[in-house]
Write a structure and sequence with these properties.
A hairpin with a 2-residue loop joins β9 (229-238) and β10 (241-251). Helices cover 29% and strands 27% of the residues. By secondary structure, the protein is α+β, with helices and mostly antiparallel strands. The strands form 4 sheets. Strands 1, 12, 13, 14, 15, 16 and 17 form a 7-stranded mixed sheet that branches. The chain has a 5-stranded mixed sheet with strand order 7-6-8-9-10. It folds into 3 domains: 3-28 and 283-439, no CATH class; 36-116, Endonuclease I-creI (Roll), CATH 3.10.28; 140-280, 3-Layer(aba) Sandwich (Rossmann fold). α5 packs across α9 (258-280).
């Protein structure tokens, strides 16, 4: 998980910024689901019901761990997953619960749900050199647009949309990429029309996302190209930057009715999303390294969006604010992966990344003006000092340094920023805060 440093060190601050608690609770819930195996069927036979129950639960915990490991581990390393005995599993169990218990004089059957300790599971995989996804994505809001034929009128919220109904039916449920379907009530109907969804209309999508407290949307556009075929095009991202992520043709099986066919198609999309998320966010033991990143800021909203995007990217393990002006920030990032892999992961958070002159340039995708991360714009790190003096991490973030004061004035870096000490400590340059008071803490969002 990411630790954020810069005035307030991870795990030591109170909750200064408004609206942080609900978001953190949501992140914690998503993270716990990542390491939870639900409704694992268990059964055992023994000389007594109590002995059968004990035996079934012990074997079930081992099976539950296998479910979690296969969910988060690199599929290419599946054959190397550790075989863990029951006494080794027990210390990794946070809690467990039972449902549907049935006993006889010699047998016990039930469904077992186990929540494992995330750090312990990660240490197990790292100890065996196996790459893994650290946590799940934040929930994604799905907008399922349907056309009955290539020339048919698109429908979205109507009762005649079988694609919407398919997404609403309970299924296997994605864990690494959880999805949420809007209610489709009058407010949704007046917020986003089918044509606005297909355009896409950024303002309308932003309003819909704000209602449900989400920041990413999946537009799943399904076109019935024949009685037994469905073409599905996927667009994923934020209202500022929607990208076509792929398309596929799904064919009906001989034993499927229309509802089952569309339900399987929706489940296929969810599995693809989950696989893509895991593959883009795999971390490997010993691969962490540090880079310097420059971020162009158009205002406080840019700062908050970029900060949150970094926090939500598992490949970004730690962030230290080194210096800040009203228009730019310099960060030290501890990352797992090269610029290509980290850039792909940042794309899902509405951020872009390019490398110029040894610096990582990060910006909001689709932001107005010269955003460092915008590929192909020829933007380089500035060669002269910004108009306003750089703020220190201490002054801009309202706290002491994360790694100790470097002492003295550090040598200037490109762009007029004062660089931090080698240990990543915050700068001590004087200057007044460039941001409102609710920026004065970076509470951790991941353990």
């Amino acid at each position: 998980m990411v630790g954020m440093a810069g005035g307030v060190e991870s795990g030591r601050s109170g909750w200064a910024a408004p609206g942080i608690r609900p978001a953190l609770a949501q992140m914690a819930e998503t993270s716990s689901d990542t390491y939870t195996a639900r409704d694992v069927p268990i059964a055992a036979t023994a000389g007594s019901p109590a002995a059968a129950r004990e035996r079934a639960i012990a074997a079930g915990k081992v099976e539950a761990l296998r479910v979690v490991l296969e969910r988060i581990a690199d599929p290419a390393q599946a054959t190397r997953l550790p075989q863990v005995a029951g006494d080794q599993v027990l210390p990794m169990v946070d809690t467990y619960s039972l449902a549907g218990e049935r006993t006889t004089d010699t047998t016990y059957k039930a469904r077992l749900t186990v929540r494992f300790d995330g750090p312990a599971v990660r240490r197990l995989l790292e100890g065996h050199g196996i790459g893994h996804a650290v946590e799940a994505s934040r929930p994604v809001l799905v907008v399922p647009v349907y056309q009955a034929g290539p020339g048919g009128a698109p429908v979205l919220w109507e009762d005649t949309n079988p694609w919407l109904a398919a997404w609403r039916r309970p299924g296997g449920g994605a864990v690494l990429m959880p999805v949420e379907v809007p209610m489709g009530d009058l407010r949704d109907v007046t917020t986003l029309s089918p044509d606005q969804a297909l355009t896409p209309d950024g303002a309308a999508l932003a309003t819909l996302l704000d209602r449900y407290g989400r920041d990413t949307v999946l537009l799943a556009h399904a076109v019935r190209t024949g009685p037994d075929t469905l073409d599905v095009a996927l667009h994923y991202g934020s209202p500022r930057a929607m990208a076509r992520t792929g398309s596929q043709t799904i064919r009906r099986r001989a034993d499927e009715d229309d509802a089952a066919f569309l339900g399987r198609a929706a489940a296929d999309v969810v599995r693809r999303l989950e696989t893509d998320w895991r593959d883009a966010n795999l971390v490997h033991a010993g691969a962490e390294h540090r880079v310097t990143a420059l971020v162009t800021l158009g205002g406080f909203s840019d700062w908050m969006a970029i900060r949150q995007g970094l926090e939500r990217t598992p490949l970004v393990r730690h962030v230290t604010l080194q210096a800040m002006t009203r228009t730019m920030a310099q960060l030290t990032l501890s990352v797992q992966g090269d610029a290509t892999r980290v850039g792909e992961a940042l794309t899902t958070q509405g951020l872009s990344l390019t490398v110029q002159g040894g610096y990582w340039l990060i910006g909001r995708t689709g932001a107005a003006g010269p955003t460092p991360g915008a590929a192909g714009r020829g933007v380089t790190a500035p060669e002269s000092a910004p108009e306003s003096a750089p703020e220190s991490a201490t002054s801009a973030m309202g706290g002491g340094s994360a790694g100790g004061h470097g002492g003295g004035a550090p040598a200037p870096s490109p762009g007029g920023f004062a660089r931090g000490a080698a240990d990543g400590s915050a700068m001590g340059a004087a200057g007044r805060s460039a941001w409102p008071s609710d920026a004065e803490a970076w509470p951790p969002v991941r353990p």
